[in-house]
Amino acid sequence: MHALLILASLLANPAPTQPVALAPADTQSQAIATSAPLVAPLIPHRPLPMPGERARLDPYGGWRDDSRQDPALLALLGEQNRWTDQQLAAQQPLEQALQAEWQAQARGESMPQEWLSEAGSQWRMEADGSLWQCSDEQAEPRQRLAARQPASGYYELASWALHPNGRWLALAEDLQGDRDYRITLLDLVDGKPLATLTHRASDLLWSLDGKTLYTIANEPRTLRPWQLWAWRDGKEQQLHQEADPAWLLSLYRTTDRRHLLLQSNNHDSAEQYLLDAGTPALLKARQAGLEYYLDTQGERVLLKSNRDGALGLYQVADLSQVAKGEWQLLWSGEERSLEKWRLFADYTVLQYRHHGDDWLDVLDGHGRLSHRLLLTEGAGTAWIQGAHDPASGQILIRRQGMAEPPHQRLLDLASGRWLPDTRASLPSPYQSERRWVVGKDGVKVPVS
Question: Is residue 31 a part of any domain in this protein?
């Protein structure tokens, strides 16, 4: 395969007809480089007509050999590989130095464990399908469910939903890799399944009263999430179906956990329904090109929407005002690309990109700007990491770049300052920067 890639590269970039002058280099590099021809061995033409709507003649198509046994082709590849090895010999010391440096680096990094607070305990699901429970911060975690991942074959635990009583657990698992999930509802006391629901999306929501499990069924063949189903007391009932084949259904709970939302959307429009009463209640009818996404925290009712063009943040007095369109603009997305937002008891945090850089704005409870921070310098990138506790005053930011390994830090929202990093950061021997290339049409493209 390596040889075929080299050949493909040479075919795409034929060797120059004239020798290329050597760039300045140390004596050893020049000696090694000049010991080999500066021009790659020529590849003879083997024309082959290529059929299609527009037939063309491939000058090298005749070299194709699916058996990988053509003596002439193997000899040609061997010659090309020997020439390549000679040309790259001068950088072997650099390659070895880089390999040694990379091998000496610590593997991976410690990631904060995310626990769900439910039924008076802390809960965590592992990727292998095992469930762990911790009664308090000092107690040792106790395994409540053994790993469900099979010894061989594909397995994905896409999502899970624990009942408020801490006894029933719903799992969305994929054993094929096609994202056509199987929902299993388990009784954690005896480990027995209460229900198995097939051909589903990974969305799972328990109703506010805990009596109903909402799931989304996939459309046959296309696997489009298209129907809302409610499981209750061993029986299922269909509540809603998305008729437009270009639209998809999904479920989520608001930050304050007071509301359940059914969302339908296509590539540039959205429509949402409240599920609080057990049946979908339309918030605002769909409108071509209009996106809106609701979230609530206490008395604050906020919408991310592109109503005025770019995605911005709006506030309404209550849920009834969503349909009326009486929205107050809190944060404009003009010349900015809003990527993530999080609601806290006293703050709203927005992560966005502006002129190629990642920024963070912290708004107070009244929507006024408290802090604005540049998250990246040079050629790095940064984003809000994982879930968050709405009652806390901290948010986790993950950052990485071409000259810095991935790492995360906590930001104090009240002061706008970074909390001390417990892991000592070593100075990087590398330097990265972002430059802008301006096209003929005036469009600026960032290059790291």
Answer: no
